[in-house]
Specification:
The chain has 465 residues and is α/β, with parallel strands linked by helices. The chain has a single domain, classed as Alpha-Beta Complex (Amidase signature (AS) enzymes), CATH 3.90.1300.10. It contains 18 helices and 13 strands. The chain starts with a helix and ends in a 12-residue tail after the last helix. It comes from Baekduia soli.
Length: 465
């Protein structure tokens, strides 16, 4: 296997090769670091690359493998989104206003270390993770490896660019309103937003007023399953990796298909994005699943409650993590000020109404197993476009292409972006699968079945191939 094929193999295959002794962790890490050195000046995926530390970790992984260690991610290079703590490094949140180096790993990072992962660096985010594009005044724009003129999305845009360009085996992201699923859909990745509390988010507990979760951006479903096995407790019997095995393909599932937008959103769903939903529905029928059109009963309160939680969550992050708020972009300061000024009774209402919203949406799951919707409304913006918007335009347009994503952060249900071909510009298009709470393994198994039918990972971004 040549260096490029090894880099694009993804976390699951890389782990297998290392466990089998067919490649060393150091060889793999050197391949990834060489690719970062060659490509990242154009992509701007990483804020910091920990080359010396990564090579030292790789040597330790090789010693452990020689001693019989079989940790799930042993020797696999992993990228960490820069809103998640990595001991000894700053958690910059896309800004110069941050608090400097942190003393301890976030819990999910500690679990990745414990699983043998090689932590190669921290990936860019928009300031305070508040944009569906990865643009910031402090660090510039991250570029999409499928088209350098476009954004990879946000806020996990650096992680998406790194994973799509094979600058890591799998990437860690976070998702408070679509921030894993949006960039995954725009870069041809499988991105999984887990059931709330499945993957730990400490010490950033209750992030964005309970909306945000941590999860993987991956080239394949197997890569994401391996990530979940390394970072979660209480998964399915045998683990997530076993749950997606071909011989355990999901039994006949009841799949609802909907392109209805939740109230408060007026999307112009792109022709290719609508076509991707219908093509995936036909594929699922061909795979033996029961597929029908069925719209969720979206509560009218969703837009108001979600916006309240996002705005207050941004204000919370400024207060808790930004000791130099004067260095924030003016837009960020203004949006955070709006969030801080929201009446406490409104914030309490936005949290209290979640139970009723969930009950209303849960009626769908009485006779449906999986919901299929569009992922993003349309293709990615030009890089830098969103970075130029002011506070008022941001609040009006911030979720315009994420229409079908934030609702499932409100209810805490698992949702994933699944690659579904390309648009007329040759850019990736995705669809979204949603399940009832706790059915992450069902979603992964169904996504793996789709992947076997139309293997998306064979396609490589032209910038990185």
């Amino acid at each position: 296997m040549d260096a490029t094929d090894l880099a694009f193999a993804g976390a699951a295959e890389q782990a297998r090769l290392i466990h089998a002794g067919e490649v060393s962790a150091r060889e793999l890490t050197e391949v990834v670091l060489t690719r970062i050195e060659r490509l990242d000046a154009r992509l701007n995926a990483y804020r910091v690359v920990l080359a010396e530390h990564a090579l030292a970790q790789a040597d330790q992984a090789d010693a452990r493998r020689s001693a019989g260690d079989r940790r799930p991610l042993l020797g696999v290079p992993v990228a960490v989104k820069d809103d998640i703590d990595l001991a000894g490094e700053s958690t910059a949140w896309g800004t110069a206003a941050h608090a400097g180096p942190v003393a301890r790993d976030a819990e999910v990072v500690a679990r990745l270390r414990g699983a043998g992962a090689i932590l190669v660096g921290k990936t860019h985010v928009p300031e305070l993770t508040m944009l569906p594009a990865t643009d910031s005044t402090t660090f510039g724009s991250t570029r999409n490896p499928w088209d350098l003129a476009r954004t990879p999305g946000g806020s996990s845009g650096g992680s998406a660019a790194a994973a799509a360009a094979a600058l890591c085996g799998v990437a860690l992201g976070s998702d408070g309103a679509g921030s894993i699923r949006n960039p995954s859909a725009w870069t041809g990745l499988f991105g999984h937003k887990p059931t709330r509390d499945l993957v730990p988010i400490g010490p950033h507990d209750d992030a964005w007023q309970g909306l945000s979760v941590n999860g993987p951006l991956a080239r394949t479903v197997a890569d994401a399953a391996l990530f979940l096995d390394a970072t979660t407790a209480g998964g399915p019997e045998g683990g997530f990796a076993a749950a997606i095995a071909e011989e355990r393909a999901p039994a006949r599932l009841r799949v609802a298909v909907s392109t209805k937008a939740p109230p408060g959103a007026l999307p112009r769903l792109g022709r290719e994005e609508r076509g991707a939903v219908h093509a995936t529905a036909e594929l699922l029928r061909g795979l033996g699943h029961e597929v029908s059109e069925r719209d969720p009963d979206y509560p009218a309160s969703l837009w108001a409650s979600t916006s309240t939680r996002v705005l207050r969550g941004l204000a919370d992050d400024v207060r808790a993590a930004m000791p130099h708020p004067e260095l924030l972009e003016r837009r960020t300061r203004r949006v955070a000020a709006v969030g801080a000024a929201l009446p406490e009774r409104l914030v309490r209402w936005s949290r209290a109404v979640e139970a009723e919203q969930a009950r209303r949406l849960d009626r769908l799951w009485d006779d449906v197993d999986v919901l299929l919707t569009p992922a993003a409304v349309d293709g990615p913006y030009e890089a830098g476009t969103f970075g130029r918007l002011g506070a008022v335009t941001y609040m009006a347009r911030g979720a315009e292409r994420l229409t079908w994503m934030p609702v499932w952060n409100v209810t805490g249900q698992p949702a994933c972006a699944v690659p579904s071909g390309t648009d007329d510009d040759g850019l990736p298009v995705g669809v979204q699968l949603i399940g009832r709470r706790g059915t992450d393994a069902v979603l992964l198994a169904l996504a793996a079945q789709i992947e076997r039918a139309r293997p998306w990972a064979r396609r490589r971004p032209p910038v990185a191939a």
